[in-house]
Specification:
It is a single chain. With about 475 residues, the protein is of the alpha+beta class. It contains 16 helices and 12 strands. The strands form 3 sheets. A 5-stranded antiparallel beta sheet has the order 1-10-9-6-7. Strands 2-3-4-5-8 form a 5-stranded antiparallel beta sheet. Strand 2 and strand 3 form a beta hairpin. Helix 2 crosses helix 4 and helix 9 packs antiparallel against helix 10. The C terminus is likely disordered.
Length: about 475
């Protein structure tokens, strides 16, 4: 049997950010007769303005009283009456702690800055009633191992985890149901002696760990907490004692930052001759290698994901800047100076085609065709897909020429039709005309006989004559006959 002990406390990540002192305290001791490990967690509320001092006092008085207890107790009597004797030990620790607290207060009264943060209830209790022990409130966990027995005492939160010779991880000290979330029992309570829990056994453990709630809260399950202690055991089994303590000390701040953010404290008693023999440590070597491979894979995946997000973020920022620049920078036609409407391909004032530069920011205008009217410039030719846009102007000119040629052809054809119509009229037989003349002479003879009516014939205009030549029906009365005769 080669028992050794260590203790470590580290300021929590959240306390560092808030410039708040570490309120945890820890202590350890070992020699050829025994080994002791102690952790105390000072309360964090504003009313517990001196809990950091209270946790340090608790560690000191617990260590002193436990050493005195081990040196003066009879082993056989302890085995028979361990509950009563350990209860007396707890009472002596509470009494010594209260003495240390009041002695400190007598020499260091509350400062104005300490009083300023107190609640009205705390001010009344501390300043008027002079019950100042709550200002120093703290939890306490302590374990002690000898060659023949070991025991533990506990008030408040935090956990005691023991590793038995079979390699199993157990929590031998009963849990206090009053310790829930941020609520906890404390050595400063008026019924603190009744709130202490304890454990005694003659079957010695291979290792015993005590940790503050800052350690517990870094893990969601007890199995994860046990894996931490497996790692610690493997470190002590595979390296020298001081190096293992240093490695754990370097790890605690990172554990707090990734986990609870609270102050973290660990103290332990280890049998260095036996920790390397338990299955948990021997198997841990394989598990550690597997975990190392998985961790490397996880880190590589995280780096790839971070790089992907970085590229996407840069691209999104670039697009955002381009859109913002386009939104705030108005575009004007370089030909007439008119403000351009977003999305338009032609200037609405002069009809000039708008072409953006490579960056899509500064618009430029193509040269306007001054030979065309503004109405013609505003006409946009729709070019079917697959056609070359560069040939659009030439196609437009060719179409215009074809249209002019078509109009000339239509006029020529119309004139030919008019001439043909006249020729057809000239080629009509004169029989109807002669018939009309004979009928006119008959009417004239009748007029001369009656001498009652005289009819004046007025020649028609050339236009009216043309209209009459286009008529398709024969004359039906005397007036029509007279017009045909005049023609």
């Amino acid at each position: 049997m080669r028992m050794q002990a260590f203790h470590l406390s580290s300021q929590g990540a959240s306390h560092i950010k808030k410039n708040k002192e570490c309120q945890d305290a820890s202590e350890s001791f070992y020699n050829e007769n025994c080994a002791i490990a102690i952790v105390c967690d000072g309360h964090g509320g504003d009313d517990y303005v001196r809990s950091a001092s209270g946790s340090a006092f608790a560690c000191a008085v617990a260590k002193a009283n436990i050493l005195n207890f081990i040196e003066n107790i009879d082993k056989d009597e302890l085995v028979r009456h361990h509950q009563k004797l350990i209860h007396n030990l707890e009472a002596s620790i509470i009494s010594a702690w209260n003495e240390a607290v009041y002695a400190h207060y007598e020499s260091h009264p509350f400062t104005e800055s300490e009083i300023a943060v107190l609640s009205e209830r705390a001010k009344r209790k501390y300043l008027q009633e002079k019950r100042i022990e709550s200002a120093y409130g703290t939890t306490l966990i302590a374990v002690a191992c000898t060659e023949n027995y070991w025991f533990g005492i506990h008030i408040g939160d935090g956990k005691c985890v023991a590793v038995n010779p079979e390699g199993k991880f157990v929590q031998p000290i009963p849990w206090d149901e009053k310790c829930f979330l941020n609520a906890t029992t404390s050595i400063c309570d008026s019924d603190a002696l009744n709130r202490f829990r304890s454990f005694f056994s003659e079957k010695l453990p291979v290792a015993v760990f005590v940790g503050s709630d800052g350690i517990d809260d870094c893990f969601s399950t007890e199995e994860q907490l046990n894996n931490l202690y497996k790692t610690v055991l493997y470190s002590f089994a595979s390296s020298d004692f001081d190096s293992a303590v240093t490695d754990l000390s370097d790890y605690l701040p990172r554990l707090s930052a990734k986990g609870s953010g609270d102050d973290v404290s660990i103290a332990a008693v280890l049998d260095l001759d036996k920790i390397g023999e338990i299955d948990a440590v021997r198997e841990f070597d394989k598990d550690k290698e597997k975990a190392r491979v998985e961790e490397n894979a996880r880190i590589a995946a995280e780096k790839l994901e971070e790089e992907r997000k970085r590229v996407e973020a840069e691209r999104a920022e670039q697009l955002r800047r381009q859109q913002a620049q386009r939104a705030v920078s108005p575009k004007y036609c370089s030909h007439c100076g008119a403000k351009l409407v977003s999305g338009m391909k032609f200037c609405g004032e002069c009809g000039t085609r708008i072409i953006l530069d490579n960056a899509g920011n500064a618009p430029t205008a193509t040269q306007q065709n001054t030979g065309l009217a503004s109405e013609e410039l505003k006409i946009i030719k729709i070019v079917p897909f697959g056609n070359d846009p560069s040939t659009a102007p030439a196609d437009a000119e060719q179409a215009a020429e074809e249209k002019v040629g078509s109009d000339n052809t239509d006029n020529t054809e119309a004139q030919d039709l008019s001439v043909a119509s006249v020729e057809m009229q000239d080629s009509v037989p004169s029989a109807p005309v002669e018939s009309a003349v004979a009928e006119q002479e008959l009417v004239a003879e009748e007029g001369s006989e009656n001498s009652e009516a005289t009819e004046e014939v007025t020649p028609c205009t050339e236009q009216e004559g043309a209209e009459e030549n286009n008529a398709t029906e024969a004359p039906t009365d005397a007036s029509d006959t007279q017009l045909q005769t005049d023609i």
